[in-house]
Design brief:
- The chain contains 14 helices and twelve strands.
- By secondary structure, it is α/β, with parallel strands linked by helices.
- The chain folds into three domains: 250 residues, no CATH class; 35 residues; 94 residues, no CATH class.
- A hairpin with a 6-residue loop joins strand 9 and strand 10.
- Helix 11 packs parallel to helix 14 and helix 12 packs across helix 13.
């Protein structure tokens, strides 16, 4: 084997050994592991406060969609679906309110928080024509954790903490058992009762333990507001511990339901992870095949409405604007230098006028007007009257021109610019000769 080939093989083996040692060192010194990086709230979550609730329901295999605007309340979904309104900004018209109640009577389920807060007992806290006013529900402020501002409940026989369901007998042994179903359960439920007992958690929250089917679920509610029911008894309620107020009231409307929350913000992106809140949302819509979450019912801007409802009109309008811009672009184009305003010499105007007349009729009209006074003068000087009686020889002797020049100047035709110049010179001389003869004594 030649020495140069041995050297090449040796270099290759050394390089392979160094690469192998480097790989072994890298694998023994470093390891691959997933790292969780918190990037903050996504733009979609900033726009949609019910995005987490929507994805939670979708993860349970349920059909859920988020919407904004008033289209969902104007064009209602099929009866049997559920609508969750996060924040009711505008006031519903009587027609929209009646349509909602007809939709609930047909089997729909509406979940919302009353629009206005009633600060005192004299104010009913509901806007004219509002949904809460129809059932007499009022939203109140709580003064403190121990005094919510609502009437205190009388001492009950079951004050040990099991609670008394709405519309049930005072004796818990005779009461109809609560039938609140967990989403993972398959048994049917009438949801006409509940039981609460206070579990102190924080100064700004109350954790209410709801017992259903032998299972206890702690649901965390903000205690800033509470609901006050009217004369109509609710189908289901979750009460404020130790008070007559409630955090949730549910009413039967025909075949459907109407649910009021003291704080619908418990289903927002930043708060749905509280104790039992996600479970409560899933339980409320468990009987509805589709859930529509309305995170804002404000009217869309005029431009957004045009894009959604009249896209062809906008495209046509944009095309029309582009056409007019193209049509008048010479007026709105780049700046140009102003035209030269220097005044022309009078000879330039005379030259231009002569060129114009020449282009029109080869100066025939001009010659006829110039010849007329010359012909009239020399016709008067002739022995016989009339233009045809002019004798070129006689005129030539008097003016100093030849007979041919006289014929060309007075009766000749012009075919070129040189002919025009010659005729004009002859006529000028004839006119000067006539003027000189008139000036002689």
């Amino acid at each position: 084997m030649r020495p140069d080939k041995k050297r090449t093989i040796l270099i290759f083996l050394c390089g392979a050994l160094a690469a192998g040692v480097s790989v072994i060192w890298f694998l023994s010194s470093y390891e691959r592991k997933p790292v969780e990086i918190h990037t903050g709230m996504s733009p979609a979550a900033y726009r949609n406060p019910l995005l987490a609730a929507t994805r939670f329901l979708q993860s349970l295999g349920r059909h859920a969609e988020s919407h904004r605007g008033r289209d969902l309340l104007i064009t209602l979904p099929p009866a049997g679906d559920a609508i969750v309104i996060y924040r009711q900004a505008g006031t519903l018209s009587p027609t929209e309110r009646d349509a909602l109640f007809d939709w609930m009577s047909a089997g729909g389920h509406l979940i919302l928080q009353p629009k206005e807060v009633s600060p005192d007992k004299d104010n009913d806290g509901t806007a004219a024509g509002g949904i809460a006013q129809a059932v007499g529900v009022r939203l109140r402020y709580q003064n403190s954790d121990t005094d919510c501002g609502c009437p205190s409940k009388p001492k009950r026989d079951d004050e040990t903490g099991t609670g008394t369901p709405a519309g049930a007998p005072a004796d818990p042994t005779k009461a109809k058992p609560p039938d609140i179903q967990h989403p993972s359960k398959s048994s049917t439920a009438s949801t006409d009762a509940s039981a609460e007992k206070p579990v102190k958690k924080k100064d700004t929250h109350d954790a209410v333990t709801v017992t259903t089917d032998g299972m206890q679920v702690d649901i965390d509610f903000p205690n800033r507001y509470y609901l006050e029911s009217g004369e109509k008894a609710p189908l289901f309620r979750i009460g404020v511990p130790g008070q007559d107020g409630a955090y949730l009231l549910q009413y039967r409307i025909g075949k459907g339901k109407l649910t009021f929350l003291a704080a619908s913000s418990i289903f927002s992106n930043s708060r749905i992870d509280g104790n039992g809140r996600a479970w409560l949302l899933a339980w409320l819509v468990k009987d509805n095949p589709n859930t529509w979450l309305l995170y804002s019912n404000n009217m869309d801007g005029i431009f957004t409405m045009l894009i959604h409802r009249m896209p062809r009109f906008l495209f046509s309008l944009a095309g029309l604007v582009l056409f007019f811009i193209w049509r008048y672009q010479y007026r709105i184009g780049p700046p140009r230098d102003p035209p030269d305003k220097t005044r022309r010499h009078i000879l330039a105007h005379i030259d231009g006028l002569g060129q114009f007349n020449w282009d029109l009729d080869q100066a025939a009209g001009l010659l006829s007007r110039v010849r007329e006074p010359v012909l009239q003068y020399w016709s008067r000087r002739s022995p016989r009257k009339g233009i045809s009686a002019i004798d070129p020889e006689t005129v030539g002797r008097l003016s100093g021109l030849t007979g041919d020049e006289i014929k060309a100047g007075l009766f000749g035709t012009v075919k070129s610019e040189q002919d025009l110049i010659g005729v004009a010179r002859t006529l000028q001389q004839l006119r000067q000769a006539g003027s000189a003869r008139r000036q002689k004594p």
